[in-house]
Design a protein that fits this description.
The chain is of the alpha/beta class. It contains nine helices and ten strands.
């Protein structure tokens, strides 16, 4: 179990229904997946969090929407912005101190109650308009895990070092786990809740990405990829991933393949 969190009421939020079809018109998938829980881990995203939540609210979905924003110890005033944006759809959970993206996602998963769980970064690199593309394979019964690939979609190019690092990590994952991914490090990951319930997430930092991928693949799930748009940002715009995180991710891939048990 995780540590106690602060800054959120104990009651569950009301859910916002968008395009909810009549019971008689539901498909089997729509009947199974009634709620999409979107987890938004944020750390010092005062300048972007309001806009990303606006975009989130604008997406039309065939199900209820629950948004869980985890403020991971922000020190730039992000918490004040979030306090004004919290409503019946958006629930804010606060870590008193910064613990890392993996810890924030773990808190979000434990808070969320949807049958589908999607991770959405609090910056503007990933566009919520791509959600229907991510949801389609699940709603058609083709997959229980979907990744949005930045390498097969449109958008602003990555920095050369970022491109090379992502390619190296993805190649390593493919070799170690006999997969065919194009973008393991993507932040757009969609899961059937049952998949997450069968996995214990340990990582606190950015090594969450290789950990969850390794454990999903070792459980025998196929990761379905779809193209997404991507607008990368650099260090001056607030990107937080550093070369040390790449080393940790590489180490995690090897560790979870040969040492760690699921």
């Amino acid at each position: 179990m995780m540590d106690d969190v602060h800054g959120a009421e104990s009651s569950k939020p009301e859910l916002h229904a968008v395009g909810d079809p009549a019971a008689g018109d539901r498909t089997a998938a729509e009947d199974k997946y009634r709620t999409l829980s979107v987890i938004v881990p944020v750390f010092n995203e005062r300048n972007t969090i309001a806009e990303i939540l606006r975009r989130i609210r604008a997406v039309e979905l065939p199900m209820h929407l629950e948004v869980v924003v985890v403020d991971d110890g922000s020190t730039d005033g992000t918490g004040k912005v979030l306090s004004a944006l919290q409503d019946s759809t958006v629930r804010v959970v606060t870590h008193p101190a910064n613990r890392g993206k993996g810890a924030a996602v773990r808190t979000g998963i434990e808070t969320a109650r949807g049958q589908l769980v999607l991770i959405q970064d609090g910056d503007l690199e990933y566009d919520p308009d791509d959600w229907p593309t991510l949801l389609e394979p699940v709603m058609k019964g083709k997959a229980q895990v979907v990744y949005g690939s930045r390498f097969t979609g449109a958008g602003r190019a990555m920095r050369p070092t970022q491109w090379l690092g992502n390619r190296l990590l993805t190649l390593t994952a493919n070799v170690l786990y006999r997969s065919t991914l194009s973008d393991m490090e993507t932040c757009y990951k969609l899961f059937d809740r049952a998949v997450l319930d069968a996995i214990t997430i340990e990582s606190d930092g950015f090594d969450f990405e290789p950990e969850i991928t390794a454990k999903v693949l070792r459980r025998g799930y196929r990761i379905y990829e779809v193209p997404i748009s991507y607008t990368g940002r650099d260090a001056s715009e607030g990107t937080k991933f550093e070369w040390r995180d790449g080393v940790r991710a590489l180490t995690a891939l090897v560790r979870y393949r040969f040492v760690r048990q699921i």
